[in-house]
């Protein structure tokens, strides 16, 4: 009887240990997903603030858990800038910090590539440098294990659309799904 109790106790401890190990490895895994939403961009031209029409974006991401409560995310996003007749591809890299199980803050850098067939902006000037750089800051909230909402502020540093346009900024509200 003693042996049966000891054997049962050892089995329960080993099962408990395996389940804790599984939770730790689940937290360290790499996840893939899709995201889509709305972009709202604005800029300053000759001292006046101009609001661009709201447009849509979509893309793919990969996210890797790091040590502690940190995560690293890389994305490839596509959006269309209607007022300038451009397609924009974005490559943001984000570092996330988990505040709670459902809520995260994020910050990062991004590279953007502007493209249209003639490579002209809305002023009919040739774009000399279609690549620009920026930074972003945002929050993310998990609706469930798979679905999440995100809100992000972006700021682009490089002037490549028009030499007089300064401070290209934007807000992005999106929803994502993790596979």
Automatic annotation (TrEMBL):
Xref: Pfam families: OMP_b-brl
Domain Outer membrane protein beta-barrel residue range list: 11-179
Keywords carried by this UniProt record: Signal
Annotated signal peptide: 1-19
InterPro entries reported for this sequence: Beta-barrel_OMP, OMP/PagP_B-barrel
Keyword Oxidoreductase attached: no
Record protein name field: Outer membrane beta-barrel protein
